[in-house]
Amino acid sequence: MFSGIVEEMATLVAMTKDKENIDFTLKCSFTDELKIDQSIAHNGVCLTVVSMENNTYTVTAMKETLDRSNLGLLQIGDKVNIERSMLMNGRLDGHIMQGHVDRTAKCIGMRDADGSTYFTFEYPFDKAMAKKGYFTVDKGSVTVNGVSLTVCEPTENTFTVAIIPYTRANTNFHDIQVGSVVNIEFDILGKYIARLQTL
Q: What are the residue boundaries of the Lumazine-binding domain, all occurrences included (predicted)?
């Protein structure tokens, strides 16, 4: 379980493909605090630490994860938003997210907002998936590359988020441009409500 409050950006230092899986080796400031079997969200994707050496750690993404996320597009040197799992004795500063990315979306617009930036993202509309809660609502929550954000201007297949300068500078939002592919996780509460309505 995660909150969508990114701790920092890790740097991808190596990638190894094994059949349909990819091992990603990364470096961050708290590598020495990690342990094998620990869960860490990478651009919003929950991955397990499988090994550690030389002040780096390695996680494995399987085909299902690669198909639903932008992890397969990563290249050596890329910055990845990371967050360790929530402590249950603290404040929930973002919103409850699982680290189970639902799909990718493409940035289709950016506009200035007096120092902040509005980013608009688009994803293919699927009526059956929308009935299961895979959509956004005005002032609802959405996770973009692991960042907990508030939705504005939603349509059936687009939504906009406002990014303050601090968030843009301290996450990989500073690399996002029109055409960039991001990971999105829809609000888990919306999915449960949608499911209850079908029972």
A: 1-95, 96-197
Where in the chain is CATH 2.40.30.20? 8-84, 103-197
pLDDT tens-digit map of 86-144: 877 776 677 788 889 999 999 999 999 888 999 999 999 999 888 888 899 999 999 99
Cβ–Cβ under 8 Å, residues 86 and 40: no
Q: Which CATH architecture has domain 8-84?
A: Beta Barrel (2.40)
Helix H or strand E encompassing 167: helix 165-170
Is 103-197 a domain of CATH 2.40.30.20?
yes
Six-digit token string for 12: 């991808």
Please indicate, yes or no, whether the overall pTM of this predicted structure exceeds 0.85.
yes
Distance between CA atoms of 90 and 113, rounded to whole angstroms? 32
How far does Cα 78 stand from its chain's mean position? Answer: 15
